[in-house]
Specification:
The complex is a heterodimer of chains A (416) and B (87). By secondary structure, chain A is α/β, with parallel strands linked by helices. Chain A has two domains: 18-78 and 84-93 and 100-105 and 182-251 and 343-415, FAD/NAD(P)-binding domain (3-Layer(bba) Sandwich); 113-177 and 254-341, D-Amino Acid Oxidase, Chain A, domain 2 (2-Layer Sandwich), CATH 3.30.9. Chain A has eleven helices and 18 strands. In chain A, β10 and β11 (224-233) form a beta hairpin. The N and C termini of chain A lie far apart (44 Å). Chain B has one helix and six strands, in the order βββαβββ. By secondary structure, chain B is mainly beta. Chain B has one domain (2-82): 2-Layer Sandwich (Folate-binding fold), CATH 3.30.2270. The chains are: A alpha/beta (416), B mainly beta (87).
Chain lengths: 416, 87
């Protein structure tokens, strides 16, 4: 069913009795051309672009729970392309362009809101670093403006400008950045892929990868064995477990990242704001809750929940930036499992096993990458060559010394 | 999360700094495949879902390095010992 104002009006007038499920919950078949493991945003986007861009429709997306039950439902919904390194900025800008056309592409309201993202700086040195980053963004067509203190004050009058320790000197703004609705992104991609014939298989956990003569030929799952000509792994948080099933190790540690939402209040935060003197980012959802987060907890974890010291640290960052939130109550918090890679950048590449492709290592920045990640991973799987926007996300870059270390922290995953 | 430091007793995790996997062994630089071994040592990890032996530094306490046996699925700590006698 194509969604439009006309179908909305017709369904409203007919008592909303004729809506059909947006996508098909399929049982697994015995074999496929391509099987994608993991029906989060990235996996479903991969399936959509495999079908749309490359004509591959004999495709299944396997999900151990329900679609979008992992990190797609455990993020802070921020979209942006404000990176420094060319290998990253090229990719994230490509992803941003896909966000800008996503609703027309999917015929689905993913609620992409380009409300602007402002990274606050607090010293002359940080201003220079942000100016450099802004130049890199502009060279890649992503836009970016360096705002002085008074310009930031006009936009965000409620910040603590005269904080004795972290005075606000200005900000780097990308007005095309913003937020999108995380569930709608999952459902929109699922619907678009399903309409082109892709099977979305839920409650189907992969328990083994069948490798014959150095080539992956199928999967053992809780819903039976499935043969596949090509297999894509898109299971951020659990990438190392899948890799172990195929017999190799990854430059990844799994960590827990917490995020929080406050009780709903009237419109206050019109943009996405990040604190430059600590790690804190905040936006306001359409329901009114302030959605915010900060650092990862910092130790290996598969628990999907974190500890109190990080909660305190995040809230302290918030209080230093905007003390007016101090009397708000935190309504909910959650933890997501993130693939912390050894240089803080993702991997979209072949693996040492033939026919097995890897999309992993998104650290805590996977949501904004959803369309670009799916597009580039589909390109890799269909054509066996990397998409130009993602050709630096190689698995062998660590061995070759071509790391993409945006932060310059070295091979210590919990510092990225 | 609290860690039972063998020197200081049960202490809040805020007092500790995490380094990572304690099972890594520095390769012999004279070995014929030393380059590959060092790449693996520096960059790749087992990253298990389950029991994980890992290094924590008790910076706000006795300043000892500790080897902690912790379940990454539950954060439950099974054993803690000082690294003085080796990893």
């Amino acid at each position: 069913m194509h969604y439009s104002g006309w179908t909305l009006a017709w369904n409203a007038l007919s008592g909303h009795k004729n809506w059909r499920p947006a996508w098909r919950d399929a049982p697994p078949k015995a074999s496929y051309d391509v099987v994608i493991v993991g029906a989060g945003g990235h996996g479903l986007a991969t399936a959509h672009y495999l079908a749309k861009e490359h004509g591959l429709t004999n495709v299944a997306v396997l999900e151990k729970n329900w679609i979008g039950s992992g990190n797609a439902g455990r993020n802070t919904t921020i979209i942006r392309s404000n990176y420094l390194l060319p290998g990253n900025e090229r990719f994230y800008e490509w992803s941003m362009k896909l966000w800008e056309g996503l609703e027309r592409d999917l015929n689905y309201n993913t609620m992409v809101s380009q409300r602007g993202i402002i990274n606050i700086y607090h010293s002359d040195v940080q201003r220079d670093a942000f100016a450099r980053r802004g130049n890199s963004m502009r060279l890649h067509g992503a836009g970016g403006e360096l705002l002085d203190r008074e310009h930031v004050r006009a936009l965000l009058p409620y910040l603590d400008y005269d904080n004795a320790r972290f005075p606000i000197h200005g900000g780097l703004m990308q007005s095309r950045g913003g937020t999108a609705r995380h569930d709608a992104v999952v459902w929109g991609y699922a619907r678009a892929a399903s309409e082109r014939g892709v099977d979305i298989v839920q409650n189907c956990e992969v328990t083994g990868i069948t490798v014959e003569n150095g080539r992956a030929v199928g999967l053992e799952t809780t819903r039976g064995a499935i043969r596949a000509k090509k297999i894509g792994i898109v299971v951020a948080g659990n990438s190392s477990r899948l890799a172990a099933m195929a017999g190799f190790r990854l430059p990844i540690e799994s960590h827990v990242l917490q995020a929080f939402v406050s009780e709903g209040i009237k419109p206050l935060v019109d943009h996405v704001i990040t604190f430059g003197a600590g790690h804190f980012y905040i936006s306001q959802s359409d329901k009114g809750g302030l959605v915010f987060g900060g650092d990862i907890d910092g130790y290996n974890s598969y628990a999907q929940r974190g500890n109190l010291p990080t909660v305190e640290d995040v809230c302290e960052g918030g209080m230093a930036l905007m003390p007016l939130i101090g009397r708000l109550r935190v309504l909910r918090s959650w933890g997501g499992l993130v693939d912390m890679s050894m240089d803080g950048s993702p991997i979209i590449d072949h693996t040492p096993v033939g026919g097995l492709y890897l999309n992993a290592g998104w650290c805590y920045g996977g949501f904004k990458a959803t369309p670009g990640s799916g597009f580039c991973f589909a390109h890799l799987i269909a054509r066996d060559e990397p998409h130009p926007a993602a050709n630096e996300f190689r698995l062998d870059r660590y061995a070759k010394g071509d790391v993409l270390d945006e932060r310059g922290a070295g091979p210590q995953p919990n510092l990225h | 999360m609290r860690i039972a430091c063998p020197h200081c007793g049960l202490r809040d995790v805020r007092e500790f700094t995490y380094l990572g996997d304690a099972t890594l062994a520095r390769p012999d630089p004279q070995a014929p495949d030393a380059v590959d071994r060092f790449i693996s040592y520096v960059y790749t990890r087992d990253n298990p879902a389950g029991s994980h032996r890992e290094l924590w530094y008790h910076g706000a306490g006795c300043q000892a390095w500790l080897a902690v046996e912790r379940d990454t699925r539950t954060h439950a700590i099974a054993a803690v010992r000082s690294c003085k006698a080796g990893l």
